[in-house]
UniProtKB/TrEMBL annotation, chains A, B:
Short name of one Pfam family: CN_hydrolase
Gene Ontology terms: cellular component: mitochondrion
Residues covered by the CN hydrolase domain: 22-272
Upper taxonomic lineage: Eukaryota, Viridiplantae, Streptophyta, Embryophyta, Tracheophyta
Record GO biological process: asparagine metabolic process; glutamine metabolic process; oxaloacetate metabolic process
Keywords assigned by UniProt, alphabetized: Hydrolase
The keyword Zinc appears for this protein: no
The name this protein goes by in its record: CN hydrolase domain-containing protein
GO molecular function: omega-amidase activity
Hydrolase found in the keyword field: yes
C-alpha cells in the first residue's frame, strides 16, 4: 500500500470538429517479405481509398514487414530521418499529394539501439504529426498445449505514453493490437476528448475469432465513441496466421463496416453527431461514481490536453 | 483540476477456494403482479436448480415485483427485519433447508424512507451474508424518437459502495443491471480478488439485443474471471419488455451456458482453475502500465479486502 498524490481531471469536453462527417478508408493490406513491394502496394491501396472518397486513411499493424520478430530490425526505420525511411517517405508523399490524413498502422521503428512497434500519423501537408509506440507488448505467459510461445518484448521496447492527435477529422487516440486489451488506454483517450480510437492490429486466428470484434465494440460502447481497426490480410502461407476482419464501430457498439480476411479497402461513413446523441441519450460519463472509484491518467498535462 | 491523495493497492492475490468446481443455477423467473405467487415460484425454481446439482443459485433483478416504478414502494421489504419481509424470509428458509448459497437477484428495499434496488445474499445456514444496493441507476437522458423516457432515480436511491462477499464458492462481486455498463465496478471486483461477478439484470429489448451479451463477455475477458447474469423472463404483456437471455461466461469470454427469453433454470459448471490458467497464459494484470494510468478503488480498506 502506498499513498500517492495524483492530479484528478474531469473529462475534456467533447468538441465537434469542423469536419464531423467524412469517410474513413481502411486498407487491409497483404504483407510480403519484400519491403519495396509492401510500400508500393500500400500506396496503391491508399490511393484507391482516397478515390472512393476517404479523407482519413488507416493502415494495419506492421504493414511494411512480416510479423516475424527476426525481421523487425532489417525492416525498421528511423522516424527522425524520414528522407532515409522509405515507408515513412511514401506516407508523407502520398498524404500530401492526395491531401489526406493517414494513421499509418505500424512499422518497426529504430531509435538509439532500440526497436519499437510504432504508428506514424501524417497530415495532409505531408508532415509527421504524431507517433504512437505500442505500449502493451504481447507477451504470452504459459502457452496452452499446442500454442506457440510468443514474447514481443524479446525484440521490441514498449512505448511509454498514450497518443492523441488532433486532426482535421477530430481528436484521434491510437492503440496498437494488444493495446486494445486494456480498457484503461481507451478510458484515457475518452477522458482526453477523443472522437475516434484507431487500433491497427494483427490478432491471430484464435483470439481473432473470439476477441477482436468484442474488444472493438466494447471500447466503443463503454466510451461512447468511434473505433476503427485495421489488420493485415491473412497469408495462409505465413508462419503467423492473421485473423483480418478490419472493422469500424459506432458509439453504440454498432458495426458500421467490416470485411473478411482477404486484402480489401473498406470505406465507412463517420458522423461525430452520433457521439453527441449517444451521450445525450445515455450520459454514462456523468453517471460514474467518483466517490467510489477514480481513473487516473498520470501523464495528462491539463484539463484540455 | 485537483490534487488528491489516494491509497494505491496492488490487486489482491487470487486465492482458489476449497470448493472451486461446482454448479451454478440461474433462475430466469417469470415475474407477475402477485408478490406471493412470485415468492412461491422463486422457491420452486430454486429447488429445481438445487435438485439439478446447483449449490450456488442466482436470481434476477426485481424478481418479486414487476419493473414498474409505481409498484416498488408496495413490494419493498426492510432488510433489517427479515421476519416481516416475506421475500427475504423465503430466501433464508430455502437456503438453509437446501443448504445452498443464494445471490438473491434484487427486490425493492425500504430503509429510512428511501427505496433501493437491492440484492440480498444468503448463506447455506440461512444467514443474510451481504446486501448490494444498485450503484448506477438507469437514468436515460434525451430519449431517441419512439423511446420511452425512464429515470430510475426518480424512485430509487443509489447504493454507495461495491459489494464483494466471501462464500463457500469463492469471492463474489455483485452488480445490478446498469452497474454492468461501468467497467470500473468490474475492475474494482477484480482488484479485490473476485472469482465471479453476478449481474442480476433486466435489460430491455433494444439494449438487450445489442449490449447484454457483449457487456458480460467483456467484463469476463478484461478481468479474466467468471461472469453470471440472471434476467427475469420476458412477459409480452408487460409494459416493460425484457430481453431475458441469462448467461454464464468464462474467463476467456466463452459462453458456458445461456438461454432464451422463456422462464428457465440454467445450470452451468464453473471451475475456478480456468481463471488460473487464463491468467497464467496471458498475465494481463502484470502487463498494465501503472506509470501511465492507475485505477483507484477509493473504498477498499486493505490489500486483502
Amino acid at each position: 500500500m502506498a499513498t500517492v498524490a495524483v492530479q484528478s481531471f474531469v473529462s475534456a469536453p467533447l468538441r465537434i470538429p469542423k469536419i464531423a462527417q467524412f469517410k474513413i478508408g481502411i486498407c487491409q493490406l497483404k504483407v510480403t517479405t519484400e519491403k519495396s513491394a509492401n510500400i508500393l502496394n500500400a500506396r496503391n491501396l491508399i490511393q484507391a481509398a482516397a478515390e472512393q472518397g476517404a479523407s482519413l486513411i488507416l493502415l494495419p499493424e506492421m504493414w511494411n514487414c512480416p510479423y516475424s520478430t527476426n525481421l523487425f530490425a532489417k525492416f525498421a526505420e528511423d522516424f527522425s530521418d524520414i528522407d532515409s525511411a522509405p515507408s515513412l517517405l511514401m506516407l508523407s508523399e502520398v498524404a500530401s499529394s492526395l491531401g489526406v490524413t493517414i494513421i499509418g498502422g505500424s512499422i518497426p521503428e529504430k531509435d538509439a539501439g532500440q526497436l519499437y512497434n510504432s504508428c506514424p500519423v501524417f497530415g495532409p501537408n505531408g508532415e509527421l504529426k504524431a507517433k504512437h509506440r505500442k505500449i502493451h507488448l504481447f507477451d504470452m505467459g504459459k502457452p496452452f498445449p499446442g500454442e506457440v510461445q510468443f514474447k514481443e518484448s524479446d525484440n521490441i521496447s514498449a512505448g511509454e505514453k498514450p497518443t492523441v492527435v488532433d486532426t482535421d477529422f477530430g481528436r484521434i487516440g491510437i492503440g496498437i493490437c494488444h493495446d486494445i486489451r486494456f480498457p484503461e488506454l481507451a478510458m484515457t483517450y475518452s477522458a482526453r476528448g477523443a472522437h475516434l480510437i484507431c487500433y491497427p492490429g494483427a490478432f491471430n486466428m484464435s483470439t481473432g475469432a473470439t476477441l477482436w470484434e468484442l474488444e472493438q465494440r466494447t471500447r466503443a460502447v463503454d466510451n461512447q465513441l468511434y473505433v476503427a481497426s485495421c489488420s493485415p490480410s491473412r497469408d495462409s502461407a505465413g508462419s503467423y496466421m492473421i485473423w483480418g476482419h478490419s472493422t469500424v464501430v459506432g458509439p453504440m457498439g454498432e458495426i458500421i463496416a467490416t470485411t473478411g480476411h482477404e486484402e480489401a479497402v473498406l470505406i465507412a461513413e463517420i458522423d461525430y453527431a452520433a457521439i453527441q446523441w449517444t451521450r445525450e441519450s445515455l450520459p454514462l460519463e456523468s453517471q460514474k461514481h467518483d466517490d467510489i472509484y477514480q481513473f487516473v491518467d498520470l501523464l495528462r498535462e491539463s484539463p484540455n490536453s
